[in-house]
Design the sequence.
């Protein structure tokens, strides 16, 4: 059975690449909602509606398990969707949980009182909608008693990347990193809390103090999915790789090549 991987655009390919490396035999259907990207500047109700529509498309393609490879959708839409949209035979998982488990050093389901995490100071970069949701800091605070987080919105960065405006993207990274460091000059760990941002990993690293560790969300999600499939083998299955977009297939295919260096052929859904 194919596993659906959803993002507003091409950023989710950073997660998909890690999933494909970790699970070489697994079939995946990737969907980018280019007709409505970027999500980061949208309201919460809009993000919820769009995410439900996208998951509906992936369910209709036979994906009973969908990964929201989009922090904006994960932070805003996942909880309400799990409450009243996802039926018992389907599963939708987000990309926040695995990162928070690694950061907190404990399992998500552990309901014990907050504990001391192995890290203190965390700089978190994300879209304006993700930062506005407060979900990341809230969930970390439920599990840890010592982690200080500075959340930095990076408006315009997703747009710049989707349009391959590399100079603009690099400028936004420098500006946002400077804003973050003004509040937390020596972070131990940085989390790139938007799946597009690992595409600028080198630029983020260059702008951060040497020795700042980046917690890799794609790797955390891949490890978590391997573990999940071992416990729920009914969602696993072989087959090919499919790349879908709600936008125009030609430009999206070209943009994917420019951004990731991978020759992925998108079809319009
Ligand atoms: N890749 C999405 C995320 O992880 C980008 C959201 C957007 O479209 O602004 O948040």
Sequence:
């Amino acid at each position: 059975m194919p596993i659906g991987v959803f993002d507003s655009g091409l950023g989710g390919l950073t997660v998909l690449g890690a999933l494909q490396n970790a699970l070489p035999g697994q079939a995946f259907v990737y969907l980018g909602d280019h007709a409505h990207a970027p999500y980061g500047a949208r309201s919460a109700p809009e993000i919820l509606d769009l995410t439900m529509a996208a998951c509906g498309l992936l369910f209709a393609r036979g994906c009973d398990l969908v990964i929201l490879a989009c922090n904006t959708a994960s932070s805003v839409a996942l909880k309400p969707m799990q409450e009243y949209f996802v039926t018992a035979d389907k599963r939708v998982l987000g990309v926040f949980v695995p990162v928070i488990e690694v950061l907190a050093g404990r399992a998500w389901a552990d309901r014990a009182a907050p504990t001391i995490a192995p890290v203190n100071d965390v700089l978190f970069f994300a879209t304006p909608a993700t930062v506005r949701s407060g979900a990341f800091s809230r969930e970390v605070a439920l599990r840890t008693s010592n982690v200080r987080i500075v959340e930095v919105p990076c408006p315009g960065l997703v747009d710049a990347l989707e349009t391959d405006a590399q100079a603009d993207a690099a400028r936004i990274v420098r500006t946002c990193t400077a804003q973050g460091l003004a509040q937390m000059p020596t972070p131990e760990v940085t989390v790139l809390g938007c799946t597009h941002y690992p595409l600028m990993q080198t630029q983020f690293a260059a702008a951060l103090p040497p020795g700042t560790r980046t917690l890799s969300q794609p790797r955390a999600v891949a490890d978590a999915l391997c573990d999940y499939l071992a416990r729920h083998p009914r969602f696993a299955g072989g087959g090919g790789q499919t790349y879908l977009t709600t936008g125009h297939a030609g430009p999206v295919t070209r943009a994917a090549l420019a951004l990731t260096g991978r020759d992925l052929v998108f079809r319009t859904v």
User: Anything to note?
Assistant: The chain has two domains: 3-96+218-268, 108-215. The pocket of D-glutamic acid is lined by residues 7-9, 11, 37-40, 70-72, 127, 130, 158, 194-196 (CB under 6 Å).
